[in-house]
Amino acid sequence: MSIAQHVQYNMKNTSWIRRMFEKGQELRERYGKHNVFDFSLGTPLLEPPEAFQSTLRYLVNHPHSGMHRYMPNNGFASTRQAVAMYLSQQETMEVSADDIIMTVGAAGAMNVALAALLDPGDETIVLAPYFAEYLFYPRNHGGMVSIVETTESFALNLDAIEAAIHEKTKVIIINTPNNPTGRVYSQQEMNDLGALLDHKEKQLGRALYLMADTPYARLIYDQVQNPRLFVAHHNTLIVHSFSKDIGLAGERIGYLAINPRATCRSDLRAAATFLNRTLGFVNAPALMQLALERSIDATVDIDHYRLLRDTICDGLRQAGYEISVPQGAFFLFLRSPIPDDVDFSKELLEENVLAVPGSGFGRAGYIRLSYSVPLQTIEGALPRFAKVLDRVKNR
Ligand SMILES: Cc1ncc(COP(=O)(O)O)c(C=O)c1O
Q: Which residues line ligand 1 (CB under 6 A)?
C-alpha cells in the first residue's frame, strides 16, 4: 500500500460523519429520500442572502480588468479593509487591514496559522467535545494534540487547561458558538481563560496563542452574544468562515485575523501570507472576496435556524428526551437515553434517522443532530425519535 500509514490510520479511525453519509446514501436508494431523516451533516441549509447574490450577479455582469488574476497572497486590500472595519466593531477595538489575511475558509486559516506557529512536537490543546478536524490540522504541520475535557455542561475547565499547559504547548483552540454542543462561551469565561494564558506565558517566558474558530459567530439566538476575543487575550488569532453565516461553504472563503496586541504580530502576518502561498492555497477565491467586501453585513435568515432549533428541541423534549437548548450554531448535542451512544445511533438508524455518535467528537453518551435540515425532516423524524425512546427505555 503506497498511502502513508498515518493517513491510512486516520482514514480508518475517524470517519463517523463519512460513515453516516454513506449509510444515508444507501438508505435513500432503498427507501427514497423522503423516508430518510438525515441529521448527520453540518452543511448549511439556507442559500446565500439576496444582498450577496445580487452583488455576485453585478460583479459577473460588470467585470473589471484583472479581477480573476492572482493578487497579493493575503488578499485584496479592499476586502481586508472591509473585514477589518467589521471586526473592529465586533471586537470594539481598532483592527488594521494589515492584520487580516483572506483564506480558503476557516480550515485554510487554521492550517496557515498552525503551520506558522508549530515546530515539530509543539502541542495544541483541543477541547472536547471537538470539531473532529482539530485533531488533524496540528498534525498536518508536525504538531501534537492534547485533548482537554470541558465540564459536564461544556463550560471551559480552567483547572484542566492549566494542568495541560507545559513546555511544549503553543496553541489552544476554542470554538464559539460550538460545534457540536451549540454552546457560546461567556465574556467572563473568555476573560478568565485569557488571564490564565497571560499567567502561563509569564511562567513559560513565551507566547501562548488562543486560536478562536468562529464560523457560527453570527448564528446565535436569544440575545446571547459571542464574546469579544481580542480583549480576552493579547495573543488571540480569530479564524472565521463565511461558510455558514452567508451560506458559502462550497466557495471556500474565510479569514485569519491577528490581534493588534499579538507578540510577533508583523512576523505572524508575513508568515501567514507566505504560507497561504506555499501550502498551495495561493490566495482566497477572488470573486468571493470582491462580493464579500460589498455585502459583509449580509447573513442568511437566522430566524429560520432559530425556528428549526425550537422545533427540534420542543419536539424532543415533549417526547421525553433531556434537552439542553443550544445558544448558537445549528447543532443539538443530545444526551443519549442509553449509555452507549453508538448503540443509540444504531437504534435511530433502524428508523432511518441518521445522527453522529458523540464519540466521534470526543464525548461518548451523546449524539450530534444537525438541525440545518428542512422543517419537514424534523417533523417527520420526531415520531421516530419518540418510538426509539420508548423502545430503548422499555427494554
Ligand atoms: C467548528 C468548525 N470550524 C471550521 C469549519 C470549517 O469551515 P470552512 O468551511 O470555512 O473551512 C467548520 C465546518 O463545518 C466547523 O464546524
A: 42, 105-107, 131, 175, 179, 213, 215, 241, 243, 249, 254
Closest ligand 1 atom to residue 178 Cα is: 1
Using the mean position of ligand 1's atoms as its centre, give its distance from the Cα of residue 215 in Å. 6
Q: What is the pLDDT of residue 14?
A: 67
CA of 241 to the centre of ligand 1 (A): 7
**In 225-301, where does DSSP find H-type helix?**
265-278, 286-294
Residue 31 CA, ligand 1 centroid: distance in Å: 31
Phi, psi of 326 (to 5 degrees): -70, 140
User: Within 10 A of 267 (CB to CB), how many other CB atoms are there?
Assistant: 11
In testing the pocket of ligand 1, which one of 136, 183, 241, 288 has its CB within 8 Å of the most ligand atoms? 241
Give the length of the chain.
395
- Render pLDDT for 140-185 as a digit per residue (tens, 0 to 9): 999 999 999 999 999 999 999 999 999 999 999 999 999 999 999 9
CA 14 vs CA 9, 28, 162, 371: distances in Å: 9, 23, 27, 22
Cα-based distances in Å from 337 to 75, 296, 344, 351: 48, 42, 8, 16
Ligand 1 atom closest to Cα of residue 249: 9
Which residue, judged by its Cα, is nearest atom 13 of ligand 1?
42
Angle between helices 286-294 and 77-91 (to 10 degrees): 50
* 13 phi/psi in degrees, rounded to 5: -100, -5
CB–CB of 216/329 below 8 Å?
yes
Which residue among 134, 136, 239, 243 has the greatest number of ligand 1 atoms within 8 angstroms of its CB, and so is best to mutate? 243
Within 10 angstroms of residue 207's Cβ, the number of other Cβ atoms is 16
Q: Each residue of 212-246: pLDDT tens digit? A: 999 999 999 998 999 999 999 999 999 999 999 99
Provide the pLDDT for residue 365: 97
Q: In the predicted model, what is the mean pLDDT of the chain?
A: 95
Task: List, for residues 52-88, the tens digit of each pLDDT value.
Answer: 999 999 999 999 999 999 999 999 999 999 999 999 9
The sign one gets for the Cα dihedral 329, 368, 254, 156 is positive
What does pTM read for this prediction?
0.96
